[in-house]
Here is the input.
Amino acid sequence: MPDTTEARIAAAARINTAMAHPARVYDYLLDGKDNFAADREAAEKLIELSPGTREGVRAHRAFLGRAVRYLAEAGVAQFLDIGTGIPTQGNTHEIAQQVNPEARVVYVDNDPIVLVHGRALLTGSPAGRTTVIEADLRQPDVILSHPETRAVIDFTRPVAIVLAGVLHFITDQEDPHGAVEHYKNAVPAGSHLLLSHITLDFAPQVRKEDFTKPYDKSSAPMVPRTHAEVTRFFDGWNVVDPGVVEVVDWRPDEGAQREDIPGGGHAWAYGGVATKP
Ligand SMILES: C[S@@+](CC[C@H](N)C(=O)[O-])C[C@H]1O[C@@H](n2cnc3c(N)ncnc32)[C@H](O)[C@@H]1O
Here is the structure.
């Protein structure tokens, strides 16, 4: 992975600590250390509203791990992981390279803090390749034509597009479905889409405006979506069993306990995997 001290210093200079950022709110909820007061305040507001937030976030992260393992075991060797988050336990390349040391991963995030930590921590096995780029999901052409993306991923071979926990930071006006179609069109048959998304379908007692409020002063809005809206991201592709389901229900590990999540056992997120026909 190319790594220059200058690039990291430049990225560090762009970090705005006064405003909550999704990557750092998520880091705090996963017991990480790369967060600031504004992030912790936003996270604590979410916990007030939903006491199961921390456990739900962990369940979401665990879904990502199971789904990446599923894909690696199915033979997928290239991953384009957009909305990477700050490196934590069970990063995509670690899981994929446990199955296939030659797996290649391009990480993409628009928060410079991810680049700062990612360049240092998201290094892969010598046999595979891993890189991190700072770019925005809403600019598919920039990501798909980026020299580092092109150096790591061969777009004539199947690719797993990973969009875990990121599309709910894109408003309808910004056309998240259009962006996802763009990525889907860039990869060949046999490719996969791994996607997870926050929903309020399991929390009828919660008002949408209360849930989204902690993000009002953050760098990105929060847009929960319904099952139909999330399922639409997979349009035209074959969704693998068990479908687009609550993340805790997606091929759970043996002995997994839904009751571990306070407040009814719901993780408030859908997840699914699909294959391009
Ligand atoms: C909740 S974290 C999810 C991390 C990881 N994918 C997971 O599921 O565990 C969301 C990440 O998406 C990133 N993000 C939000 N909006 C983005 C955008 N428009 N383009 C790229 N990344 C974005 C945030 O910076 C953050 O790191």
Notes: The mean pLDDT is 90.
